[in-house]
Design brief:
Blueprint: E1 2-5, H1 17-23, H2 38-41, H3 43-48, E2 64-66, E3 75-78, E4 85-89, H4 90-105, H5 121-131, E5 133-134, H6 135-141, E6 147-151, E7 161-163
Antiparallel strand pairs: 1-3, 2-6, 3-7, 4-5, 4-6
Helix pairs in contact: 4-5
Length: 164
């Protein structure tokens, strides 16, 4: 079973239950903004550094974030329905976000100095690609304490239900 956040109405990324049950979960569904996606941060660099052996169907622009457990009081849940699910090291993803933030604003904002990881964005994106494992491999090895789970296709509305 996989989970996707069902946030309270007061949350900026709340999506009504009826919308999810009608249209499913897509990359542009508001609640998907709650999930990190290190591959999307600097997409041109990510695509340039994509390993030759990486599946052709990987498109970070179309990825849907998921959790392996119900981390919220309510979540949308659904069975594993595709083999287009990959797991990345969430710690590396955080470093991509930090370094991109630093590089984008270093000339205009002194406060971003705290976000400099000391490594280039290319370094972190290469590490991100190297961290890629299938969901099955992740369950066998559990290599990351903060996994970033991405589904590379829409979650169909027919299989989604509300879980508490």
């Amino acid at each position: 079973m996989l989970y996707h956040s069902y946030l309270p109405e007061s949350h900026e990324f709340h999506v009504p239950l009826e919308e999810i049950l009608t249209f499913g979960i897509k990359s542009n569904t508001k609640s998907n903004n709650r999930y990190s996606n290190g591959g999307k941060v600097k997409i041109e660099i990510t695509e340039k550094l994509k390993p030759k052996e990486a599946p052709d169907w990987i498109d970070f622009r179309k990825a849907v974030g998921a959790d392996l457990t119900n981390r919220f009081s309510k979540s949308f849940c659904f069975p594993l329905f595709t083999n287009k699910v990959l797991v990345f090291n969430g710690e590396v993803s955080i470093n991509i976000y930090d370094q991109a933030f630093y590089e984008d604003l270093k000339d205009t904002d002194e406060e971003v100095l705290n976000f400099d990881t000391g490594r280039s964005i290319e370094h972190w994106i290469k590490e991100y690609w190297e961290s890629m494992v299938t969901l099955e491999q992740y369950f066998q090895e559990k290599p990351y304490s903060k996994p970033e789970i991405l589904i590379f296709e829409d979650v169909p509305e027919q299989i989604i239900r509300e879980c508490e």
